[in-house]
Amino acid sequence: MTMKNPKTLLRSSVIGTLLVALCCFTPILVILLGSVGLAALTGYLDLVLLPALAVFIGLTVYAIWRKKQYDACFNNPSTQSRNVPNE
Questions:
Q1: Nearby residues of 70 by Cβ (< 8 Å), 6 or more positions away
Q2: Are 63 and 13 spatial neighbours (Cβ–Cβ below 8 Å)?
Q3: Of 6, 21, 69, 75, which sits with the fewest C-beta atoms within 10 Å of its C-beta?
Q4: What residues contact 68, with CB distance under 8 A and at least 6 apart?
Q5: Interatomic CA distance for residues 61 and 53, integer angstroms
């Protein structure tokens, strides 16, 4: 069984989660939308940001689970070092 290195998935999911959480819990996005004249859209931010936050948290949990599976498969001590007698 071959698995690709899951570090990229973990890195992107953590960055996405932090970005969405930053926009959810701080007024950064409201200030940005107000400055470009789209302040009327601020009422709909919760409809987009909260599901996006849930998706990115789920993706982060999946990436952590996949990284644990990867580490268990490829860091097995029985396959890394074998005592081969000198011939």
A1: 3, 5, 6
A2: yes
A3: 75
A4: none
A5: 12
Q: How far is CA 83 from CA 13, 59, 75, 76, 80, in A?
A: 40, 40, 17, 15, 10
pLDDT, tens only, 18-71: 999 998 888 888 899 899 999 998 889 889 999 999 999 999 999 999 999 888
Q: What is the dihedral of CA 11, 17, 19, 23, to 10 degrees?
A: 180
Supply the angle between the helices 45-74 and 7-25 in degrees, to the nearest 10: 160
How many residues are recorded in the chain? 87
Please check whether residue 52 is in contact with residue 20, taking contact to mean a CB–CB distance below 8 angstroms: yes
pTM, rounded to two decimals:
0.72
Per-residue confidence (pLDDT) for residue 60, from 0 to 100:
94
Residue 23 host element (H or E): helix 7-25
CB 60 within 8 A of CB 13: yes
